[in-house]
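Entry 14. Structure prediction run on the chain below.
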Amino acid sequence: MTSWIGDGTLGVMLTLNQYEGGYYTAKEASIIATLFSAVSITFALVVLDQVGMVQYFGVYYLLICFVGIICALICPLLWPLHKKPETYVIEGKAAPETIPEGYKSSSEYGMDLALKRVAQHKGIGEFFASGAKNACSMWFGVLPTVMAVGTVALILANHTPIFAWLGLPFKPLLELLGVPDASAAASTMIIGFTDMFTPSILIAGAGACDMTRFIVAVVSVTQVLYLSEVGGLILGSKLPLNIWELFVIFLERTIISLLIVCPIAHLLF
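Output returned:
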């Protein structure tokens, strides 16, 4: 909820805090950070506005939610996520999977755990101090990366053919799925790994048709693992994910998104 309503970066930060606190295993944290995060509602609107299709926001965001759920169901079954270890950074902090003796139901046990957790709270001052620390960490730790990676990605996209070359393997798939302007759409597929907003900028300036712009707008948001924010934060954390594994998950999300979005786009347009 933090990720979808607030920001994907905040959702990942919360996941990392839970993992480093010993509440998630390496596998659980890797799955949640890469699959449960999403672009916020407000930024999704910005992306759709960039491609000039705000009137489709309702179906657009429902489609994003649907793709996100399907990715969260499928990707944990694939490499590399299914190979991650079920180990904790700090042993003994996470609640047991089975209900201990003395509790009548999972609700009773959950309430008891919640009350014990609340008892550890140190007051409103500590809450705001922790929030300010996390905010400063994000601003000064993430913003330079966002600006640097985003700027470099735009320079490469506008002045070199590198992303057009990298996107060539997607062209046959897009043509098979009946996507108009397949070449223009293909060139935006890989650039989403560097920055989430850049694909919508490129496709808006390419003069592509409504269907293609809509597909790119959806896929650029559902890819989510862009290095300028979410990806960079994951790579700088203690999670057992390297850049190659992150790229593989990014490709898995991209292909799943295309297989879902393209047929629905044909119905809409």
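The CA atoms of residues 30 and 239 lie 7 Å apart.
Filed with the rest of this week's runs.
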